[in-house]
Amino acid sequence: MSASGFRNEHQIASELNNKSFNSLSKNFKSFILHLLPTIDQHVKINASVIGGSCKPDLKVTINNKDYFISIKVGSGNSVHQEPLDDFLVYISKNCTGSNKSINDFIAHFIWGDGTLIGNGPASSRLRASEYKKLYHNKLVKLNLFFSKNKITILSRALKHGSSGNIPADFLYYGDKNSGIICNMDKAIKYLSSSSCNSAINLGGLSIQAWNRNLNGGTKSEKKRGVIQLKWGSLAKDIPQI
Prior knowledge:
The chain is α+β, with helices and mostly antiparallel strands. It has a domain at 77-157 and 193-232. Helix content is 38%, strand content 22%. A 6-stranded mixed sheet has the order 1-2-3-4-6-7. Strands 5-10-9-8 form a 4-stranded antiparallel sheet.
């Protein structure tokens, strides 16, 4: 996450922490009422940034009950990243139709250099648009596989994450001044019935390589072999959810 993303989380926590409901801004009164539709005007609210690899970024506590919220801001939102090998282990255990061929197709797409382990020369690395032209049949099979497993993988990407320690109950898109909050299960259901224009899509999310490092430079090489899911239309979608 960028420095601005971390700053946004801490600013939101500061607006909520150790405050009574009646002292909150209009935006955060609406925020809290989404978590708890009936609340005493004078009840004390506590909030803290979670940090780490958990899906929720913020914990809000009201009347000794915890609510866990994922926070997004800005555009081109990446909602999940994990090493390719970890992702392949996960789908092998949890997804319908997973097999060696599917795993190999995914690895071939993410590395984008004609290999399954990313050891091809930099000159062989393809942009996603180039890959789509050359390997259309592979992508048809991958999109069919992901279509069959949308809820399972969307839940991992948005709610549970790869650690699975604490699920995110809600999604807030915005900053300390304004934003929209929605139930995470509703967001997953909405995305499962949506689509996007990408080589591989998971409903409304695009599946891509974090960085293909097309020029072979050393700075971005560590970002290869990481699968990334992006919600490019989040700002437009969340009001509908």
